[in-house]
From TrEMBL:
The keyword Signal applies. This is Late embryogenesis abundant protein LEA-2 subgroup domain-containing protein. Residues 69-153 form the Late embryogenesis abundant protein LEA-2 subgroup domain. The lineage of its organism: Eukaryota, Viridiplantae, Streptophyta, Embryophyta, Tracheophyta. PANTHER family: LATE EMBRYOGENESIS ABUNDANT (LEA) HYDROXYPROLINE-RICH GLYCOPROTEIN FAMILY.
Amino acid sequence: MSKKILCLCLWVAAATVALGSLLPPPRLTVFKPKHPITTVDSIAVSDLHFSIDVAELRVHLNVTLNANVTVKNPNRLDFTYANSSAFLIYRGKEVGEAAIPAGEIGGGAAQSLNLNLTLMADRLLSDSDFYSDVISGTLPLQTNVKLPGKLRLLIDISIVSYASCDLEIHLASRSLDQKCHYKAKL
């Protein structure tokens, strides 16, 4: 009787080893880290005050952009991200910023971030291209969002998600054209 039990145990052990070698470990399949997806859902001009003072040869500009950004976590694990910022760029120079507070997105969930990017007009007024853009009626801008974070499996896995949008603000109609690009790095 004990030989039969020993033989059965050996067969079960051999079958377990055989199946274990054929099936990949769950950490390489189910828990394999995937990139969080950052998308810019909309960007709108929420405040625009524009005037030209011909007597003093000055341009007065105040622009606030409202950006709705969604971060989707396709992982089964929580994605924890650190404090970050969204930047407003004019011809390669930073002219605006919005803080993104640290947070956590559950596995398979998405989180909406509402960002208000305020244009720092004083940085624009010193740029000679700005005046020609104002005269043309179109202001080219770019937004950059970088969201660094991590997933915790057995160790912390660092992930950075990026979103970049090229914008054209049409000053007369107060409208906006946008084209966005997304990427992520493990």
